[in-house]
Amino acid sequence: MKTKGTSSSSAGYFFYKGLALTSIDVIKTGDTSWGGNPLVHFDGTIKGRADDKDATFLKNIKEVKDATGKKVLEAEQLTVAQAKAIINQASSDGTGKPLFCIHGFSVQPRGHLKAIKEATVNRFNQGKFMPIPVMWPSGGGVKYLGDRKTTPGAGNGLK
C-alpha cells in the first residue's frame, strides 16, 4: 500500500477541510494519507441501495481526477472513534457535540459541502457544536422513483 497525500492527479479547485459523514458508498484507493488513514473516492453519481447499512466519516475532502480522468471527491476515511476525538478536540471544554447538517433531494456532495462551509465560516470556532455535513445518494427530486426506493437505505446507513 502506497502512502501519500493524494492518490490521483489534482482536479484543482475544491477542498473541504472539516469532518463529514456519508452513506454514499466509498471506494478505497489503496493509498493512505500522510496521517495513515485510508484514502477513498466517492461522488454523487454512485447510486444508493435500499439495503444500505453503513455510513463513513471523512475529512479533508478534495476534488481529484481518478484513473479514468473523471472528477471525483477524495477523502481520508475515519473510524467513529477518530471522528469523536476530532469533535471533542474542537470543543472548548473537550466534550463537543456534532451538529449534523443533512441535505434534501437532488443535492450533489460538492454543493452541500460548499454550502456548509460558507454558512459556518467564523461561526463555530471552539464552540460546543461542530457542524458535520451529511451526504446521502440523491439523484433527483421527491418524485424521482430511484430516490424514493433508496432513501430508506440511506437512513438505515446513518443509524
Briefly summarize what is shown:
By secondary structure, the protein is an alpha/beta fold. The protein has helices spanning 80-90, 109-120, 145-157; strands at 2-3, 10-22, 27-32, 38-42, 56-65, 71-78, 97-102, 129-135.
What does this structure look like?
The chain is an alpha/beta fold and 159 residues long. It has one domain. The protein is built from three helices and eight strands. The chain has helices at 80-90, 109-120, 145-157; strands spanning 2-3, 10-22, 27-32, 38-42, 56-65, 71-78, 97-102, 129-135. It has an eight-stranded mixed β-sheet with strand order 1-3-4-6-5-2-8-7. Helix 2 (109-120) links the parallel strand 7 (97-102) and strand 8. It is globular and about 45 Å long. The chain starts with a strand and ends with a helix.
Estimate nothing, just give the exact number of structural domains. Answer: 1
C-alpha-based Rg, rounded:
16 Å
Flag low-confidence runs.
none
User: How would you characterize the largest beta sheet?
Assistant: 8 strands, mixed
Q: What's the rounded overall pLDDT mean?
A: 80
* Secondary structure category: alpha/beta
N-C termini distance: 31 Å
Order of helices and strands: EEEEEEHEHEH
Q: State the share of residues found in helices, binned by percent.
A: 10-25%
